[in-house]
């Protein structure tokens, strides 16, 4: 039997190298040995291949939290969601039943699909919108990691490669010791977090049962459609009429919606309350319209500026030109030209 | 929590305040069929800048009204207070039924 390697890091590799016991036997037989006949079980492999003591398998970087638990992977999915999703609405859900959830999701999907023409970009956006229940505490931790852990600032660690040479590797993933330490350092102590940090603003919201609506892009039109379904407020975001969508007025959907409460939202790292979310949803024509407005403003400002700069020189040229024509006429006319010439010197 | 004898729940809170915690948790303790069984639940969310204290107002079937102080009480003590009266009503209901 091959001697057992005791170090934990080596185990990962040895299991990868030796899926069964038979290959190890043949490997031992290949080794040059002075003895005429050695049994595989007794063969020492010290002269052969040994792993460096600080070898780390590339597929299994060291982590601060156990990497193979469901919780850790949920944390990773939340951090990636927070990094990539520009528009998140937070809802408190008070004991919705499964039937109510599916009914609410169905109505939401229907309303979002009506926003854009089928086949366009924003149609795809609507299909990616998701209303999901989150684990509040895990989301809180993920928010802390996203806010306080900067992967680009983590110093590299020196570990041994398989061949024994030293290499520099950066372990800056979300479950790493560096991420854990950064979060601990930022939230340690009694002093409150700075008001400017998104985590400090959002953390009081993360209480009780929460669900999030995620949209993969900031699209006020889609946001308005979602708001008119999930938290209708008559003047700006009216609920769909009974004639247009009878499904929305079914008691199951209505019961479910009564138990959903919009508590806040995060739009591109800015935290908004109910009114703020409504304001974002109320931007007419979306971001493109805002950009068009900006371009229009800059263009008209530029026009004004050029007109203003051009004005004096143009008027000067006009006066000089008129003066010249007058002088020309007078030169042709005779003596009066001299008089005018003196006048011109005075003015100039 | 015994919710059979509650007829009316009215809360006002600012979700961005840490003190709104117990009011929000109280809402999550109400059973899924609470509205269907005739309980009136109204929750009003205050804007973010408001400093109004969060309030919880509960009415029972026998007409008793409770104004609970959400700022100072945790969710456990609120539930304790509500259950203290609910148990009295439960006892009465059991005696009349028997």
Automatic annotation (TrEMBL), chain A:
Family per record: Belongs to the universal ribosomal protein uL10 family.
Name of the molecule in the record: Ribosomal protein YmL11, mitochondrial
Span list, region Disordered: 52-71, 322-348
SUPFAM superfamilies membership: Ribosomal protein L10-like
Coiled coil spans: none
Cited InterPro entries: Ribosomal_uL10-like_sf (IPR043141), Ribosomal_uL10_bac_type (IPR047865)
Organism annotation: Trichocladium antarcticum
UniProtKB/TrEMBL annotation, chain B:
Keywords from the named record: Mitochondrion, Ribonucleoprotein, Ribosomal protein
A single Gene Ontology CC term: mitochondrial large ribosomal subunit
Extent of the signal sequence: none
Primary location group: mitochondrion
Cellular localisation: Mitochondrion
Gene Ontology molecular function, alphabetical: structural constituent of ribosome
InterPro entries from the UniProt entry: Ribosomal_mL53, Ribosomal_mL53_fung
Keyword Mitochondrion: yes
Superkingdom as given in the UniProt entry: Eukaryota
Family stated for the protein in its record: Belongs to the mitochondrion-specific ribosomal protein mL53 family.
Protein name, as recorded: Large ribosomal subunit protein mL53
The species this protein was found in: Trichocladium antarcticum
